[in-house]
Automatic annotation (TrEMBL):
<feature type="domain" description="DUF4817">
    <location>
        <begin position="9"/>
        <end position="59"/>
    </location>
</feature>
<dbReference type="GO" id="GO:0003676">
    <property type="term" value="F:nucleic acid binding"/>
</dbReference>
<protein>
    <submittedName>
        <fullName>T-complex protein 1 subunit delta</fullName>
    </submittedName>
</protein>
<dbReference type="InterPro" id="IPR032135">
    <property type="entry name" value="DUF4817"/>
</dbReference>
<dbReference type="InterPro" id="IPR036397">
    <property type="entry name" value="RNaseH_sf"/>
</dbReference>
<dbReference type="Pfam" id="PF16087">
    <property type="entry name" value="DUF4817"/>
</dbReference>
Length: 215
């Protein structure tokens, strides 16, 4: 069926369904539409229609290719499982290099194993009274702003980033491979390097690099 376009295949399938798989009737419909007798033979039409009922697609059956792929998956699955069991944070590129498997094959295997990449989320532990304390702080600040006790133009807005000497965690490129979302705790290094950035109205910026030991 390689020489037939998708539109032609759809036409054959529709006619096979309308004509109750009567090939002679399909051939007549073909001649009326295309004005020639270059239709597929009876066996080809029957195989195409059977495939459509089985898969819902008129495209070439990739069963043979899937069989070959299945062999690769079977042979490589145990290697992949053992590899990521040793370190769930390794990248696909690194795994492909070390296991000597094509990246596309590795991705297929990981899909079969239902392995998905999860991005680490950095959070802070919250106590039961944190919600109430936050609400109280918000009310207090709102009152100070309304009474003029706090000048909005003199508020510093700051943020900080941590740079650990051991490269322990960077959530932007840190991935965890697993079959479900992990519930794990990552312990942070005791003395990371901090980078603090502060901004105050109108454009003043303060930058500082310091160690947590200096705080």
């Amino acid at each position: 069926m390689n020489k037939y376009s998708t539109d032609v295949r759809v036409f054959i399938v529709l006619q096979m369904a309308r004509c109750d798989e009567n090939v002679k009737a399909v051939q007549r419909a073909w001649q009326e539409k295309f004005h020639n007798k270059n239709w597929p033979n009876k066996r080809t039409m029957a195989r195409l229609y059977a495939k459509f009922k089985r898969t819902g697609s008129v495209e070439d059956d990739k069963k043979a290719m899937a069989t070959a792929t299945a062999t690769v998956v079977t042979d490589g699955a145990k290697q992949v499982v053992d590899f990521f069991a040793a370190d769930l944070t390794r990248s696909v590129r690194r795994a492909a290099e070390m296991l000597r498997i094509k990246r596309t094959s590795l991705q297929r295997i990981m899909k079969e194993l239902e392995l998905s990449p999860y991005k680490i989320q950095v959070t802070q532990p919250l106590n039961e009274d944190h919600t109430q304390r936050r609400s109280e702080f918000e009310q207090l600040m709102l009152e100070k702003l309304q009474t003029g006790e706090i000048d909005v133009k003199k508020i510093w807005f700051s943020d900080e980033a941590y740079f650990t000497l051991d490269g322990h965690l960077n959530k932007q490129n840190y991935r965890y491979w697993g079959r479900e979302r992990p519930e794990i705790t990552v312990v942070r290094s005791l003395h990371p390097k901090n980078f603090l950035c502060g901004v105050q109205y109108p454009r003043m910026v303060c930058l500082a690099l310091f160690s947590s030991m200096e705080l």
